[in-house]
Design brief:
Strand order of the largest sheet: 1-2
Number of domains: 1
Strand content: under 5%
Largest sheet: 2 strands, antiparallel
Shape: elongated
Mean pLDDT: 79
Length: 534
């Protein structure tokens, strides 16, 4: 009898075979996946974020956003003996300013009998500062320097009548200034147009609206003020490089010997316009940043200004240079130059720098002597434009007398504001040398801004501001290579020495008035100088 054949079991070898094949397939897939990735190349590192590729910024050299391209001219290299050589940015760490509140608390309008602090000190404390000896330099973007800090700019626009239309104009203007800035940091008064008109002839450059070469220091300072006026301080943002380069160029033109601006080797020597504006611009930047590297250069510039002041309290064109034995203190007192000098000195005082009281006293005496009882002021006591009067001089007299401590309700202050109220800005009338022009609009804006909102007083600012916007906004160039600038052709001062750079910078400054200065602070600090008028 045959034994029945046993049925063969195929399950076990089949499962074993499948397992072996599965393991081999898995190893093959893993190998293919790893080999799909490209081995990193030597050189640029590629960063991938969500499918977006870009070169790692750490592998690129630092780029200057907004600065005009072009080779750096040898004659514009900073002198080895210049201040900027000793103040390189990498030598000291950038100081971190104290934080300021997003929406400051308004301080009391009248002194408390139980509080011995000055109004300025209490205002500083209410805005987040110290209660003793406080100044705007410890409140970047605040204090007398206005509402330029984070969270405050919109407050200034709402409070004083600005808006998106004025801010758009400011941005357009700054973009144009950035485009025509030289690679070394200056704004070239008579050569800026080569940035969009390469190879321009002499006549073409003249037709574009040229300034005077000796005004490069002053024009560069005015353009820098336009950037700091909008809160650009050189530390961050798209205009940081423009601010840093302008700062460094101005410092490179400061003399080691005496603190003045303009090197003895310069073909065209700047006047006291340039010295005053450079001091003001660097001081404004210092008030924004608290950068201690700027403190010594500004202090030296302040001492130079005060040492060069005429015996009667004013300044004239010709600047004193080291070793110039023929230079004498000016007997001609130019009210326009003196106005910029007073703005610089009062800004330095706000920055808690040493400003000799005697210099402020003499300046106050000069504005008393050169201002008539009806409020009009004379341009100069002798020489060029001797005893000429005009609204521009009236406006600068009003602002400087106020900053130097004259009471807002003095007879002269009231008469001057009444005169300003009757002649608001008007584009078609800007060709008057001492009348209705951009210079007058600038100082008139300051005067009526400082003079507004006082208890029981009239507010003429609202009417002026309406006319200011109607004058400036429609006349800003809206297209082409000049987009953002303001034509200088119908303005007497621009045609006689400032050019398109001057007209654009000073118009931007006017459109920044809403947050550039805080009237409450200005009045408080002016009150501390009231004794000059006793």
């Amino acid at each position: 009898m045959t034994r029945p054949r046993k049925r063969r079991d195929w399950t076990t070898p089949l499962l074993l075979t499948l397992s072996v094949h599965l393991m081999a397939f898995t190893l093959f897939i893993n190998h293919r996946l790893f080999t799909m990735f490209e081995q990193p190349r030597k050189g640029d590192h590629i960063t991938r974020f969500g499918g977006v590729e870009g070169v790692d910024p750490a592998d690129e050299k630092e780029k200057d956003e907004g600065a005009a391209p072009g080779p750096q001219a040898e004659e514009n290299q900073p002198s080895k003996a210049s201040v900027s050589e000793a103040l390189r940015e990498e030598q000291l760490p950038q100081p971190q300013p104290p934080a300021t509140p997003a929406r400051p608390v308004e301080g009391p309008s009248k002194p408390e009998t139980t509080d011995s602090r000055t109004l300025a000190e209490r205002l500083a404390a209410s805005h987040g500062g110290s209660t003793v000896g406080e100044s705007s330099v410890n409140l970047p973007g605040g204090g007398v320097t206005g509402m330029r800090g984070e969270g405050r700019r919109q407050d200034g626009l709402r409070k004083h009548g600005g808006g998106s239309d004025t801010e758009d104009a400011v941005e357009l203007g700054l973009a144009w200034l950035a485009k025509v800035q030289d690679h070394d940091g200056k704004w070239d008064s008579d050569g800026y147009m080569v940035h969009y008109m390469p190879g321009a002839t002499g006549n073409e450059r003249y037709d574009e609206g040229v300034g005077m070469a000796r005004n490069d220091v002053g024009i560069t300072a005015l353009c820098l003020l336009a950037f700091t006026g909008a809160g650009h301080d050189g530390r961050s943002g798209k205009y940081a490089a423009n601010v840093r380069k302008a700062r460094d160029w101005l410092l490179s033109r400061q003399r080691v010997e005496d603190g003045g601006f303009g090197l003895p080797t310069d073909t065209y020597r700047p006047t006291y316009y340039g010295v005053s504006l450079a001091t003001l611009a660097l001081c404004d930047l210092y008030l924004l940043t608290g950068d201690q590297k700027l403190r010594t250069p500004i202090q030296r510039a302040v001492y130079f200004l005060c040492d060069s002041q005429g015996d009667a309290g004013g300044w004239d064109y010709s600047q004193r240079y080291p070793g110039d034995d023929k230079w004498q203190r000016p007997e001609r007192n130019d009210l326009s130059i003196t106005g910029w000098a007073v703005l610089a000195l009062t800004a330095a005082r706000e920055a808690n720098l040493d400003v000799p009281q005697d210099a402020l006293r003499k300046a106050a005496e000069l504005f008393t002597q050169q201002t008539r009882k009806d409020g009009e002021a004379i341009y100069a006591n002798k020489g060029t434009r001797e005893h000429q009067r005009g609204m521009g001089m009236l406006a600068v007299s009003n602002v400087c007398r106020r900053l130097l401590g004259e009471d807002r309700e003095s007879e002269i202050q009231r008469k001057q504001r009444q005169r300003l109220d009757k002649l608001p800005p008007k584009w078609s009338e800007a060709n008057e040398l001492l009348g209705n022009n951009m210079y007058y609009w600038y100082y008139g804006s300051l005067a009526l801004m400082v003079g507004r909102d006082a208890e029981g007083g009239e507010d003429r600012w609202r009417k002026w501001n309406i006319e200011l916007k109607k004058t400036l906004l429609p006349h800003q160039v809206k297209s082409g290579p000049r987009r953002g600038s303001f034509d200088p052709y119908n303005d007497a001062w621009a045609k006689s020495g400032g050019g398109r750079l001057y007209s654009t910078a000073i118009c931007i400054l006017m459109l920044e008035i809403y947050y550039r200065y805080e009237p409450e602070y200005l009045r408080a600090h002016a009150k501390e100088l009231a004794k000059l008028w006793e």
